[in-house]
Amino acid sequence: MPKDGGIGASSKRREDVRFLTGEGNYTDDINIRGQAHVFFLRSDVAHGALKGVDTSDAAGMPGVIRIFTGADFEAVGGMPCGWQVTDKHGQPMQEPRHPILAHEKVRHVGEPIAAVVAETLEQARDAAEAISVDIDELPAVVDMKAAVASDDVKVHDDLTSNLCYDWGFVEENKAATDAAFEKAAHVTTLELVNNRLVANPMEPRVAVGDYARGTDDHTLYTTSQNPHVIRLLMGAFVLGIPEHKLRVVAPDVGGGFGTKIFHYQEEAFVTFAAKACNRPVKWTSSRSEAFMSDAHGRDHVTKIELALDAQNNFTAVRTETFANMGAYLSTFAPSVPTWLHGTLMAGNYKTPLVYVNVKAVFTNTVPVDAYRGAGRPEATFQLERVIDKAARELNVDPVELRRQNFIREFPYATPVAVEYDTGDYDATMDKVLEISDREGFAARRAESEAKGKLRGFGINCFIEACGIAPSNLVGQLGARAGLYESATVRVNATGGLVVMTGSHSHGQGHETAFPQVVAEMIGIDESMIEVVHGDTATAPMGMGTYGSRSIAVGGSAMVRATEKIIAKAKKIASHLLEASEGDIELKDGAFSVAGTDKSVAWGDVTLAAYVPHNYPLEDIEPGLEETAFYDPSNFTYPAGAYSCEVEVDPATGEVTIERFASADDFGNVINPMIVEGQVHGGIAQGIGQALLENCAYDENGQLLSASYMDYTMPRADNLPPMDHYVVDHSCQTPCTHNPLGVKGCGEAGAIGSPPTVINAIIDALQSGGHKVDHIDMPATPSRVWSAIHG
Amino acid sequence: MYNFDVEMPGSVADAVSAMGREEAQALGGGQTLIPTLKQRLASPSVLVSLSKISEMKGVCTGEDGALCIGGATVHAAVAKDGFAGLAGLASRIGDPAVRARGTIGGSLANNDPSACYPAAALGCGATIVTNSREIAADDYFQGMFDTALEEGEIITEVRFPVPEVSRYEKFVQPASRFALVGVFVARFSEGVRVAVTGASEDGVFRWAEAEAALSQAFSENAVDGLSVPADGMISDLHGSAAYRAHLVGVMTKRAVANAA
Questions:
Q1: Chain B CB within 8 Å of residue A782 CB
Q2: A287 CB-side CA count, 13 A
Q3: Domains along chain B?
Q4: Both A576 and A547 in a single domain?
Q5: pTM for this one?
């Protein structure tokens, strides 16, 4: 019997009422009286010396208020990087200055050179066309290996090379890992590319800066996943505005996928310009600008080796990865190929030795940072592809090879510095084999072959790490921020309550799921609870939403705050009931005295807290409002097994996904419907990466896939029919260290699915006698056809 | 977008007159032109909308049996009233919104190398009728985005000889879903015509070798062993010249197999 409320109920998403009726309040919906508009003139060359920016003609054009260039920001801080990685020699990474507007050099197509503030956007755009930019174009470096091999083209003249860092993990394991390869009975090697992606949230980025001269208050409205982080980074490191004079609001946000975590120049610009012009200043990204200014994702080139003994036990994994940073370090870019990637290279397997080398490289491309999964998809893709290749080389069942090497005892300390608290990888593997009907695959393959098609079955496991923590550990790893979360629970006099959370919802359904937890704890209806988020003026200092952390970290903070509320409410109830506090029980929204029929309703207690006529004023304060900060003791480790069936048309190379099944272990689940939606969406993005999406540059650093004419987004007809698009989360090993036993589900689909698809394609091609053991993503028809035809 | 004037003539004569204005640009359904204007890649001083000219809209059968389609007729109307191959083509252009606005005249005037309609017009040997003359399809298409149209000339009608059987097969470019390679095959009593779009750097073209073979025997097997040279084919992010050349053969066979 499904629950109709509380934890485990598929409560309908209350936020959808406003989203689906056009009543959402997105940043672009915010228009402030007197608002001016900014248009950014962006570089159309990838690399060049900026000799001059002549704004004299443009300055006098109709509607122009002021034109800014790099020189206007010399006294202002550059864009900060939030994570400092230490290289394998113990040295800090190379960290270039990242100006708000290009100064002296341009380093990627799309880098802003000048900003025109005008009465209207069209006037700003007209004036931008009248700006004369003198650039001496320089050769660009796009290929990572070339960027490292030679200093002929340096992205940053003041750095020693294009190498940001050369990271070894765990460096102390390197010799032992190498020795294990020497002794291996079999070694499988695979070189692969994890393709660069553009996040493409439905809502492009928008920023509106406002300044009140009378009070010296700044406000930034922005499309952010973490308004407090933006306030801290921009206020403290860029513009020098203290937090109490800077409010950052991220209202309804139409998807983030990671790319709205970061602090961007446009945010700092509108905040700065609002004061400089004494006018509200608005910027709305066009889709074309988004392609060349939103941080991109992935872009790794990797060689992975897997060593096995004579019994097919994994004995060691060794990788060498080149990770593209782009032209500058985006906010959390250095952490993605390192701590979010290397730490997952043990996967679901008891491989005793792992050594990961990552070379992060500057190139003349848009900065690269976290995108749904961030580092973990890259780790999973390598590992699960090389295991599949090993199974084929050894002629063993890929399922059995994985099972043989599964970790089965928890907690489990991996050789890459993390400890998995719980898991049951056999359970998710069993489940996915069941729901994918693997037994029926042979018959379906025969049907496909009768039509002249090839059919393949792909399978893989994955593990991810969510809710990155604790703060003291991540500080040691280079994070320049804490990774706790906060919540304030404010109970109103008549019993309704508001949860102010530092988490941010931009599609995740927090406004529905968070109240389910509080409703369950107190025993009241979900409709009595409201979630407020996205405004530094109302929510306590929080770190925002990314890395599937919201329910595990933000939800836990909310639980802690609610526990404090309940503890205080019990004291009030004990006074009202004239009973000992220890005898008070809370159930179904009423406080009762154990073993008696005496009780007092939730609403009577909350009323007493705010109308404290009959109240123990000498012992406790009036009011019922509590704040909690929660800093987890460990990551959470969602894991699962995914399977995919593809059909390949050998005549054209076209791949269609006929079936997809996922068996995830997310621990406890708050709202199954929302979880399933997250997984469906994540898998769709993973299929997008595997088959469709490719952010491509030419050798001159020109973006080839700069619009939807060339960048292929996944569409509904790229996905299997819903009855063969099965997502299961019934295997649950609750997290042992957070109060809800939850693990996080936002990224799983995007992490687990790309290798599944490629594994299936390879299976299909080999069934047709084609000796293809790898295809790089995206496996477009053209690439598949080329692979078939050598 | 830059500022421009808009004229909405109600007749071909008024449209021709409006097109005489300096830097005038005809506007069909706007499916290419409007995005171009939004990107500021074109700056006409006046747009002459053809969408209010009723004499340029609709599908009918002419005295010679040809299917006559007004230049301002939208794809959705052709999808409903065209013969099998043509209706099938029109029904797969873009999405419902594109088909509700985009027009046959606009598509043929633009002559995008990846557009679908040029394959049908050339594959059927259609006649492009303008405000001043009639142009045979074989003379009309002159390379990528290039046609026989003179400055200010408006396509008022397209006349398609109706084939016995026909079919358009399109392999889509994954992102834009324009034709990576599209092949229109039409069988007439006097022979078979095969027109290919999407593939060539010179725009739509006829595949003479396949036409000859299919005129002998209208079957998939007739195309076996035939191929177009990769030389001159488009090569880009979505497919090499060799891949496109290969797909011409595959799509031709499928068009023959599915012709109705």
A1: yes
A2: 13
A3: 1-49 (3.30.43.10), 165-258 (3.30.390.50)
A4: yes
A5: 0.97
